[in-house]
Amino acid sequence: MTGSGSGERRSGWLLVLALAAHLILLASQVGSRSGGTRLESWLLGALGPIAGAVDLTGDTLGGVGRAISTQGRLREENRQLESRVEQLERRLSALHGVEGDYARLAEAVDYARGLEVALRVADVVHADLESGQRLLVLRVEGERATIDQPVVTEQGLIGRVVIAQGPWAKVQVITDSSASVGAMIERTRRQGLVRGSPSGELELDFVPLQEDVRVGDRIVTAGIDGIYPRGLPVGFVVDVRPGEDLFHRIRVAPSVDFGRLDHVYLLEAGRVPEAILGAEVGDGGR
What we know:
Layout: H1 2-29, H2 38-115, E1 118-128, E2 135-140, E3 150-152, E4 157-165, E5 168-173, E6 180-185, E7 191-196, E8 202-205, E9 218-221, E10 233-242, E11 248-254, E12 263-268, H3 274-278
Antiparallel strand pairs: 1-2, 1-12, 2-5, 3-4, 3-12, 4-5, 6-7, 6-9, 7-8, 8-11, 9-10, 10-11
């Protein structure tokens, strides 16, 4: 019984395989609506999605590769642009420095024209603005400086040369405690004497109490001391109060910021000859 059952099952499988082969053969011969045989249509339907997935994966990998290449190129271009921007910024900074020098020189030239004097530039190589003796050391190109030669900036008066040796000059700053300048209140033309002080401020002395003095009044050189020409800015009144001996006590803030000096100008102004200053009445110039 067992042998006959196994033979029947084998005969059944053979029959099924034969029918399947026959159907495949028929399908290979029967055309489909879309053209081609039905076998081709079945194979296309089964394998099409797989092929599409393979194509999609290939396209995706290609796109990633192109994106990586583009990103690398953009990164390099960005690096080059940053380098170019840095170069332009350095050039712009240098141009600003030159522009500032030209602007300061233009101001100084106009300043000199207004005073009808010539200017000569000098570099500040040392500054002592903290001790009681407030001094600058200058390096002067060309002709050497002269004793008592006025020193200015575009903002106003610095002081006078007290020592000159070769290309070097030492300048006494007007805020020095032993410095003094013949000055006047520009608004009223009232004259007085500006002195330095140990605190580094300026004081305007010998202005009577009856004189009108206001905070903010501009103080300029009076041109009466034989050293400084008239009209150089000295400072501004910052405080007025009654003092001793019927005079105001007037504090003056300098026009110049002495902490920002890198160059100054020597005034080439004609001075009153010592022979005239020291001559007695009746000498007649002998």
